[in-house]
Specification:
2 copies of one chain form a homodimer. Chain A has 282 residues and is α/β, with parallel strands linked by helices. Helices cover 42% and strands 15% of the residues of chain A. In chain A, the strands form 3 sheets. A 5-stranded mixed β-sheet of chain A has the order 9-8-7-10-11, sandwiched between helices. Chain A has a 3-stranded mixed β-sheet with strand order 1-4-3, with no helix packed on it. In chain A, strands 2-5-6 form a 3-stranded mixed β-sheet, with helices on one face. In chain A, helix 3 packs across helix 10 (264-275).
């Protein structure tokens, strides 16, 4: 990686100049200095609401299948990696995470033979990898559930109304309580959600720590189901701070420490580009 | 009931004139014609954010315990029914539903000996009644979860963007599919939520029916946990249209038909008022 440039744009928040403007804002200077360089992207830019519609490749699939089905934005010489679809009914889907998984296998080749890769996020993905192919995966809306409950439900009010902030030890303790409770709840998290309010009313939870408890409930529920279906993760991939939170949650429920891999997206884009013959000596 | 008057106010939406204005808008004409009549209310008006703080009475509790601990708003001669708190850790709470349960027992005395009363709503309650006392209950945030996911998550988008409306048969079928899937999901609803989007992407669910499917998932999850903990409901109490939706869901998972009780709140307020000596010949 010679240079990096980030913008806060996304499919839900584009500049007035649209996809072209967002792309040029990031890449125009690079294209000026490297006029023959190819461009490659992954994620929601390839969705039905994106710049160009890229396929969903059915599992099992690896880097070769992705490289074969790149979509193109000819006016900017941009290639877009397809997503993946699972064999479940209804099928699950991912866009962007397939590239991070390819990158994770490149960064840590020991994951290629057989592993469970977890990508925490708005829509967390648990993926099973066998012989460098993603054979199955599932989505947990943990991050989005947390955000909508925090911002729009009664459960966000104690923290919004709290006069004080919470110290790290109290926040960590509330998160761990939530993780343990949900992890041990055989029926799922639904009958526990209201406790993020009632524990505050009963003065058994600091209002300012109540969102840490709620986050723990949702992550603990994801771990309970994910571990039952996919076994222990072999790698956590994505935003390092969020991955560390999942690593902490795994330790809370007495699971072994899991490596956190950063930089998987650029590594994956490079691998797909290599496979597609986009990387040349020029 | 000689007369009824409804306003759209609630604790989250008061008129500029506050609690006094809301009360007078409903009751001033009645007080003019019946100057010695008592007034009684239940629900969030008795919460910490309400007009007067009413207690939470610990379970087991029945109409006598509620009548003993009425809170008062002296300037309007108003009495406010306390809520209930369960023995769980953290304790669960209700405000308003305790009065509906008292009313349900008055309307249908056969429920008094031993029954399970379910009150669907924003925060659904499942309550176990033994010898006219509420001995245990649990809250499911089914209604609020549905509303925040519909209005603020990715899951609401297919229906918002749908160009067509959905016919009743398609809507009912989507609801039933969601109920069955969640009812049979031993791990809980979390790993199923994303299917409200992916089934649309896979063209296995009409976008305009996707919220009916999501509603089915959440109600099916509530029924799965509620039935496991409390057994089959003996009565559904509250808004008749919503109760009918739960009755349909129960039939979908092959449970017997359950009577729907309407008018439980006024019946319960009357019973509490009788017990507290507020009802006199005058």
């Amino acid at each position: 990686v010679l240079d990096a440039h980030a913008e806060p744009w996304g499919i839900m928040r584009l500049p007035a100049s649209g996809f072209v403007g967002a792309f040029d804002g990031v890449a125009a200077a690079w294209r000026a200095t490297h006029p023959h360089a190819q461009a490659i992207a992954c994620g929601m830019v390839g969705s039905a609401q994106g710049w160009v519609r890229a396929a969903y490749v059915p599992c099992p699939a690896g880097v070769d299948a992705l490289a074969e089905r790149l979509a193109a934005v000819p006016e900017r010489g941009l290639h877009v990696v397809p997503g993946l679809t699972s064999a479940a009914d209804p099928p699950d889907v991912m866009r962007g995470e397939e590239t991070q998984i390819v990158g994770a296998l490149a960064l840590r080749p020991a994951l290629s033979a057989a592993s469970c890769v977890v990508l925490p996020g708005t829509h967390s993905k648990w993926a099973r990898v066998v012989e460098s192919n993603v054979v199955d995966f599932a989505t947990f809306m943990t991050g989005e559930l947390f955000a909508v409950l925090r911002d729009h439900s009664l459960l966000g009010r104690p923290a919004r109304d709290a006069a004080t902030t919470v110290d790290t030890a109290t926040a960590d303790d509330a998160f761990a309580r939530g993780v343990r409770l949900a992890f041990d709840a055989a029926h799922g998290v639904a009958p526990l959600l209201f406790s993020a309010r009632t524990a505050v009313l009963a003065e058994r939870l600091d209002p300012a720590a109540s969102l840490h408890y709620l986050s723990g409930l949702l992550v603990g529920d994801e771990l309970r189901v994910g571990l039952a279906r996919y076994g222990a993760p072999d790698a956590l991939v994505g935003d390092p701070a969020l991955c560390e939170r999942y690593a902490t949650a795994l330790r809370t429920v007495d699971r072994p420490s899991v490596p956190v891999l950063d930089g998987a997206a650029p590594a994956g884009l490079w691998r797909v580009a290599e496979c597609a013959g986009l990387v040349t000596d020029a």
